[in-house]
Amino acid sequence: ADILSNVDLKAMYQYHSTSDSLATLLVSNRFSTRQLFFDKNKNLCGWRNNETGEVKPAYPYMDCSKLSEFAFGGVHVISPKIFEYMDEWTGKFSIINFYLSVCPKAPICYYTTDMLELMDIGKPETLAEAGEWVRKHSFY
């Protein structure tokens, strides 16, 4: 992903390494056209496209009203065990669809921090903003 972030990657990795999760997804509590749903144990349960209303539940009994919604930040830490679930997934594929197919079988969890800042730099017009962002967050 083409994301700038102030996330402490070492802290995120340490969090992931103490969990049983196959993947730990960086999320933020912000509105996005696509939201991920997590249960009270931080496990992925589904996805919603806020523009179309499409919902992809990972479980047939998923009740969105009882779940937390977060926007995916494009950063994830994975366990090597996740490759055991990728036999059917070849070529290009949506990582979120893959995670939704796996989460009923094994935990996919989230990580976030209160002061998390993210910036999508996937468009040429955001590169100038990215330079300012880097200067603002520079530790040099």
What can you tell me about this protein's structure?
The protein is an alpha+beta fold and about 140 residues long. The protein contains three helices and eight strands, in the order βαβββββαββα. The protein has helices at about 10-15, 95-100, 125-135, and strands at about 5, 25-30, 35-40, 45-50, 55, 70-80, 110, 120. The strands form two sheets. A six-stranded mixed β-sheet has the order 5-4-3-6-2-7. Strands 1-8 form a two-stranded antiparallel sheet. A hairpin with a 5-residue loop joins strand 4 (about 45-50) and strand 5 (about 55).
Q: What structural category arises from helix and sheet content?
A: alpha+beta
**How would you spell out the order of helices and strands?**
EHEEEEEHEEH
Spatial separation of the terminal alpha carbons: 25 Å
Cα shape: globular
As a percent range, the share of helical residues equals: 10-25%
Helix tally? 3
Widest β-sheet, arrangement of strands:
5-4-3-6-2-7
Task: Estimate the mean pLDDT confidence.
Answer: 90
Which runs of at least 5 residues are low in confidence (pLDDT < 50)? none
Q: How much of the polypeptide forms β-strand, as a percent range?
A: 25-35%
Task: Give me the Rg, rounded.
Answer: 16 Å
* Main sheet record: 6 strands, mixed
- The beta-strand count equals 8
